[in-house]
Design goal:
Blueprint: H1 2-6, H2 11-19, H3 21-29, E1 44-48, E2 53-56, E3 65-71, E4 78-83, E5 87-90, E6 99-107, E7 110-111, E8 120-122, E9 131-134, E10 141-144, E11 152-157, E12 160-165, E13 169-171, E14 181-189, E15 195-196, E16 203-205, E17 213-217, E18 221-226, E19 234-239, E20 242-247, E21 251-255, E22 263-271, E23 276-277, E24 281-291, H4 294-310, E25 315-316, H5 320-324, E26 344-345, H6 347-358, H7 362-370, H8 378-382, E27 387-391, E28 404-406, E29 411-416, E30 419-423, E31 433-437, E32 447-451, E33 458-464, H9 475-488
Helix pairs in contact: 4-6, 6-7
Length: 489
Amino acid sequence: MIKKLLGFQNKHFRKILIIDAALIIAAVGGIVAFSEPAPVQGLKVDESTYSSVTFSWKGSENADGYRVYRSEDGKEFHYLESTVDNNFKDGNLRTGTKYYYTVAARNGFKKSKVNSRRALKVTPELETPELDIDTSKGKMQLNISDVEGAIAYEIIRDGKSIGESLENEYVDETAEPNKTHKYEVKAVRYRKDPVYSTASNKKEAELRQIPGFAMSANESEIMLSWEANEYYDNYKLYNGDELLIETSETDYAFKDYNMDSIYDIKLVGYNSEDESQSPELEKRIKVVEEPMDNEGARQAACDWGVEIAEDDSFAYGTGNTAHHCGCYFCGTNRRKKAAGYEKTYCCNPFVHACYAHGAGDPQMLRTCQKGDSVGMESSDYTRYGNWERYSKPSNTDDLVMGDVLVGSHHVTLYIGDGMIVHAAQEGWGADTICVDDVASNYRYCDFVMRYTGTGSGTMYKVREVDEKGQIIKTDEENQDSEDGESQEA
């Protein structure tokens, strides 16, 4: 009858009715004898999430209910709700906002004081995420535990934020290979005025990539080589999706290539023990025929010298004619026999011929064809305009492939890797033009002549290309273009 009369159909209103039942009865019956309840003590947080807090307190003597108050500055408290329990859950809170709570006990018309000095302080927070990293597939993949209420995860590498992920995983595409990186993550809530969790555990990880591979070409094959890597004992080389070879070696000759074709070469290292792999090393390439550059000319001179050394029909020759001229291919070795000109070289004319015929240096070739004298002074080289003189290095490691080592009685051609090719002054045998260890002849060297020209021939060169098949210029080529444009301007 009372419910119908007062219209107590609302649930919230019914809750108030229960709490203040004693007060209503007292008002109707004229009873006013209520004892003052003891102040609330023992406020403590039972649970806190990113958007709610549950707290409790000790039951107060003479209390028949409690009134909960909340503040955001710790000074001005506002009534929030009443309850007959000695615990309370406040939901729909903003993550990162600080809240203060206090509770007053009620007994009929009487209540304890609201004690702000004993207020409970709490800030709803996101949980701290857990981080794990997997590099076994050749990628820096971060796996992040799910955090309730998070809308994203901030990725921190080496102390700096590098982006965020909307998912529980993230692949760091910009991680520097062969460098140990330190990672941690934070959960994020809200786009505007974002709130962050505390940082996760820190994880260190490294992508163990094969440093790279060298590429060269001739008429019939592309030679690929790469450095051995301590982490991998097996390698797979692909052209696109086609497996070319699986090997424990560190080189491969790709035979019978097509000059007009583009090849997508991919190299992957594997560790058979833990079944991990390296990041994929990819190059899009094609072989082109280009005018020789300086390095190519020096390489061609060395290759020509080695080819002659391996041809046992050539031998060391001596005497005035060999010293002064001595080129079989130019017909300037004047010891003509019935079968033709003698296939001999003295040391200096041999090196001269390497640059005349191997590199195709125009000035040296003209001199070779004329049969002019070639001496052992730096001026005999610099007169061609493409040579520079260097003092003898104290260490052969400072030599450059194609360097000519000049002494008063002998001249040799350094071909790299601690080796030389020369006409060796050891008689007329078939092995007197040969490849030797540079250390065995270095005592004869007084100074070094270094070739600075480009020759006149062409060379096969492996070039990287873009998606449209256009050659990607090297940094050096781009710089040369900029310098040329500056000079024209």
